[in-house]
Specification:
Distance between the termini: 49 Å
Number of strands: 6
Length: about 170
């Protein structure tokens, strides 16, 4: 049984406010917290979102932090209204997979610290360049100066690659 299947049998913990439900017992919420589980992949993510939320297409805030996720699955790119995505404290190791999230038109906040990719040279510049609409990354504001530096960093790295490729 996958962690998502298990999650569907659990009753979500209520926070300070009671959780509102519709007549089908689905939650009237635009956020979903699936943090601190043993999720390794996102294969059944859409099924889980559909199970819990009355309006799954309006999901705006998704917390997948502190799991065992190793890849940024393309299923995340189908969440067209996603604005906030927490992926910190996982095991994501391929920095280029962040580029996939560039198709999300409203994504303005992401957390990726505590993943293997954080140790990559140019980690922050790479993410800021890949996600140009970001306002916050790893719980800190993305400044206009960082955006400029990310563009310069990207141009210098791509120029170096094309020069190296032409020399071979």
């Amino acid at each position: 049984m996958s962690p998502f299947t298990e999650a569907q049998t659990e009753e979500p913990s209520s926070g300070l406010r009671p959780l509102k439900r519709n007549s089908e017992k689905k939650y009237l919420s635009h956020s979903l917290r699936l943090n601190n589980n043993s999720i390794t992949d996102l294969v059944d993510l859409q099924k889980t979102i559909n199970h819990f939320l009355a309006e799954p297409s309006l999901l705006a805030w998704l917390d997948l932090s502190f799991n065992k996720i190793t890849h940024i699955d393309p299923v995340l790119c189908e969440l067209g209204n996603l604005r906030v995505l927490y992926l910190h404290g996982n095991s994501i190791f391929n920095l280029s997979e962040v580029n996939r999230l560039g198709v999300l038109p409203h994504l303005h906040t992401i957390t990726l610290h505590g993943n293997v990719i954080e140790s990559n040279k140019g980690y922050r510049n790479s993410v800021i360049f890949a996600l140009p609409r970001l306002k916050r990354m790893d719980f800190s504001v993305v400044t206009s100066q960082e955006r400029v530096m990310a563009n310069i960093w990207h141009q210098s790295n791509n120029h170096g690659k094309s020069t190296r490729e032409s020399l071979q």
